[in-house]
Design brief:
This protein is α+β, with helices and mostly antiparallel strands and 175 residues long. Helices cover 39% and strands 13% of the residues. It contains 5 helices and 6 strands; from the N terminus they run H-H-H-H-E-E-E-E-E-E-H.
Length: 175
């Protein structure tokens, strides 16, 4: 009897949680962190709170660097994206969660598939400034080994998340 009562109470508790969770008002998207009501307070704190001030200054300096590079060459940032620029492959083949090869032909360049679902790699991710423009080489990527410091050709399956990391850096330069 006692076990039955406990099970019933637990079921009732879970049901209440589910019902209350389902009846909540959905969040609006996109989420905006500063509204017209909070804008003045935000700007004030951005100027008076030291870590916020430093964060904003660092973001601006980083963005200014890339804006200058793009002013010289409007394609600078886009050309660093890890794409199938020449090969235009549209099919990806994996073996055990790691990139094996790609194939097919798309009418336009396609995004390169990340080397592995695992982030671990023995190689360093290059800075955007070090990435060769429109890089698409069948030998893989030319990366610096973490231990030896030597650059070597590496199959994408050995690069972990470097490919998507480079694209994330390129897409996130303004954030």
């Amino acid at each position: 009897m006692k076990k039955s009562l406990i099970k019933s109470l637990a079921l009732l508790f879970v049901s209440i949680l589910l019902i209350s969770g389902c009846s909540r008002k959905p969040e609006n998207h996109p989420r905006i962190y500063v509204s017209d009501k909070t804008k003045t307070d935000f700007l004030s704190s951005a100027n008076s709170v030291e870590w916020k001030k430093r964060l904003i200054e660092d973001k601006k300096a980083n963005l200014d660097n890339y804006l200058a590079l793009c002013a010289e060459d409007p394609e600078w940032l886009v050309s660093r994206l890890q794409m199938n620029w020449k090969t235009r492959h549209n099919r990806v083949f994996l073996i055990g969660g790691k990139f094996s090869h790609s194939g097919g032909e798309a009418p336009v360049p396609t995004v390169r598939y990340s080397g592995s679902r695992d982030w671990a790699t023995d190689y360093l991710s290059p800075e955007l400034e070090e990435v060769e423009p429109y890089f698409d080489d069948p030998r893989g990527m030319y990366l610096e080994h973490k231990t030896t410091g030597e650059k070597e050709w590496v199959h994408p399956s050995e690069t972990g998340h470097i490919i998507e990391g480079i694209n994330r850096k390129g897409n996130g330069t303004g954030s």
